[in-house]
Amino acid sequence: MRHTRLALGALLAATGAGALWAAVPASAPKAPAAPAAPDRIVSINLCTDQLVLALADRRQIAGLTRNAIDPEMSGAAITARGLPLLSNSAEQILAIDPDLVVGMPASRSAALAALPRQTYPLLDVDNATTLDQIYVSIRQTAKAVGHIGRGEALVARMQAELAGLPKPGRGRVAAYYQRRGYMTGTGTLVDELMDRAGLVNLARKLGKPPLSQLSLEEMVAAQPDFLIVESATDTVTDQGSEMLHHPALKHIPRISIPEAWTVCGSPGYASAAHAIIAQIAAIDRGGQ
Question: Helices in the chain by DSSP H: which ranges?
Fold first, then answer.
């Protein structure tokens, strides 16, 4: 045993400390630390309100738009209750001193423009008109608020909710008809939702732009198979909604969905798709 220890000592002496150093793998260079998550986030747009509410911690949210708590406009109205609401005031933003301002785009905010000497980190989110663009907005916002994993989970959930949905529209024609005869056309989330359900957008068929007006007489003449309307117009509340209840339209089956699900590129897209598909199936079962 003594001879073994002596032999080992001799070997170490002969090879030197460099041999032992070489045997230990060098540590990998450390990745740069992720930027700190913002503590005072301000959203200055209805659509970014919903993204921030879905992805940031509640304690991080320092201000949302006043529309954030309107259930007809925001799919996250309940979640927004109790949070600070802003009126696009430069003074309010100055008082908050945010470390992130989110908008569509934030860089064109009139309130921020009124504060030429104040510079805040900005996140410009593009208006989403397709599902893929919604996913981009979710990931972009999640990264900015410090919750990348939360964004990936939301995208995965939406993908699962939309996977394998049927297309009961079977090529029938639908018109998204709004107050005062406005009709939503191509290049919009509504148009993509119709296609996902197997419907053909009347606006596409007529070659109309993203937003146009179609008179009552023109709608009757077009004879769509379905009218898609905002659920807020299910009852007459003003002159704008009154025309949607004209007797000349009574024979056209209706699909009713909240505007809050379609006005923004948000998780409400999946809810809108399911609602449209379910109502087409219900109408078909009823023999209409």
Answer: 2-15, 17-23, 46-55, 77-80, 90-96, 110-113, 131-145, 148-162, 189-196, 202-205, 216-222, 239-242, 268-285
User: Would you say residue 283 has pLDDT above 50?
Assistant: yes
Nearest Cα to Cα of residue 50 among 153, 121, 146, 154:
154
pTM summary value: 0.83
What is the Cα–Cα distance from 86 to 196, expressed in whole angstroms?
Answer: 36
212 pLDDT band (50/70/90 cuts)? very high
173-176: strand order across its sheet = 200-201, 173-176, 226-230, 254-257
Strand partners, 177: 183
4 is written with which tokens? 């073994």
Which DSSP string corresponds to 167-233?
-TTTT-EEEEB-GGGEEE-SSSHHHHHHHHTT-EEHHHHTT--SEEE--HHHHHHH--SEEEEEGGG
How far is residue 148's CA from residue 216's CA, in Å, rounded to a whole number? 48
**pLDDT exceeds cutoff 60 at 20:** no
Whether residue 219 contacts residue 243, with contact meaning beta carbons closer than 8 Å, is answered with no
User: How are strands ordered across the β-sheet holding 100-103?
Assistant: 85-86, 61-65, 41-43, 100-103, 122-124
Judge whether residue 134 has pLDDT over 80. Answer: yes
| Cα(90)–Cα(99) distance, integer angstroms | 15
Q: φ, ψ for residue 247 (rounded to 5)?
A: -55, -25
Question: Position 105: which residue type?
Answer: P
